[in-house]
Amino acid sequence: PSETGRVLSIQSHTVQGYVGNKSAVFPLQLLGYDVDPINSVQFSNHTGYPSFKGQVLNGQQLWDLIEGLEANDLLYYTHLLTGYIGSVSFLNTVLDVVSKLRSINPKLTYVCDPVLGDEGKLYVPQELVTVYRERVVPIASMLTPNQFEAELLTGLRIQSEEDGREACNSIHAAGPSKVVITSINVDGNLLLIGSHLKEKGNPPKQFKIAIPKIPAYFTGTGDLMTALLLGWSNKHPDNLEKAAELAVSSLRALLQRTLDDYKSAGHDPKSSSLEIRLIQSQDDIRSPQITFKAEIY
Ligand code: ATP
Ligand code: PLP
Ligand code: MG
Ligand code: NA
Ligand code: MG
Fold first, then answer.
1. Exposure string (b/e) for 182-205, b if CB count within 10 Å is 16 or more?
2. What would the pLDDT profile of 43-65 be if each residue is shown by its tens digit?
3. Atom number in ligand 2 closest to CA 273
4. CA 234, CA 97: separation in Å to the nearest integer?
5. Is 223 a catalytic residue?
6. Euclidean distance between the first and final Cα of the chain, in Å?
7. Cβ contacts of 17 within 8 Å, gap of 6 or more
8. pTM for this structure?
9. Using a 6 Å cutoff on CB, does residue 211 contact ligand 1?
């Protein structure tokens, strides 16, 4: 069965390039979802460039859009997806949005990418960490932190795959029944760790996928990864490892294409962050060849 749904996606918009909603909306549409984007910021380009300009939506402006939808009975969603959020006031309004959507659809799935930082560096204000830990994580259905974010949210140090599994257990105890730590770095190798708590009281079903590291820096891949995990885990609700295999396999094909295109255009892929070849990879998103297998623990 090809389960689909209607997704409210609250993320960044960039005029040029693919991060935030620009890297999440198109793939979800390709997988058959109706996607309604709310742009939390509108920037000329992503923040990895030497400069950027644009506008930031505040919490009240977000709430205005929600009220507009509600006034016309347009607030029925199967999924809420959130990514980078820059301020406590906006995050507090997102919490209100979750309550409002769940008052209309109690079965709403909230997929939260708790974007806080990467590789030891925080890129949101420090006070957001507490709000995520205390108020957002407990109401999320699925969480997709990276290694650093999982550490910040659990207070655990992650240096091995066992540590990664422990962090997933700790996140389950806080609320989410599905957790994907999108990568942990163990001895220079990338590992995705997934965990599905099917029934409270029983141990979660856990797995890993080894991801060969490509020597280049991409932007928008975290946002794409979470969107693909939403899309596939909804189609395979009882098989998170299959969803992760599909997501990683799509991503891999896209990253390889991105790398090849930059190289044939004469660019050094190590010298700057690469814009992903999202549109060119639509076949790999719609029907990925599984090239990465999960190993169940
Ligand atoms: P994480 O860093 O934990 O993967 P993130 O939210 O910081 O999560 P990204 O760093 O963009 O997001 O990574 C998301 C996914 O993209 C990874 O799971 C991996 O599959 C893929 N990916 C990103 N960069 C690389 C790379 N250099 N080599 C191989 N895979 C990559
Ligand atoms: N949103 C905006 C506005 C950005 O500038 C960036 C990265 O520069 C991202 C999101 C992050 O993208 P990702 O973590 O998916 O690489
Ligand atoms: Mg990362
Ligand atoms: Na992530
Ligand atoms: Mg990320």
1. bbbebeeebbbbbbbbeeeeeebb
2. 999 998 999 999 999 999 999 99
3. 8
4. 21
5. yes
6. 27
7. 45, 46, 219, 220, 275
8. 0.96
9. yes
Pick the catalytic residue: 34, 64, 73, 223?
Answer: 223
Dump pLDDT digits (tens) for 242-256. 999 999 999 999 999
Nearest bound ligand to the CA of residue 148: 1
CB 220 near ligand 2, within 6 Å: yes
2: pLDDT confidence band, cut at 50, 70 and 90? low
Pocket probe mutation, ligand 1, options 218, 219, 228, max atoms within 8 Å of Cβ = 218
Q: Which of 148, 150, 114 is nearest to 132 (CA)?
A: 114
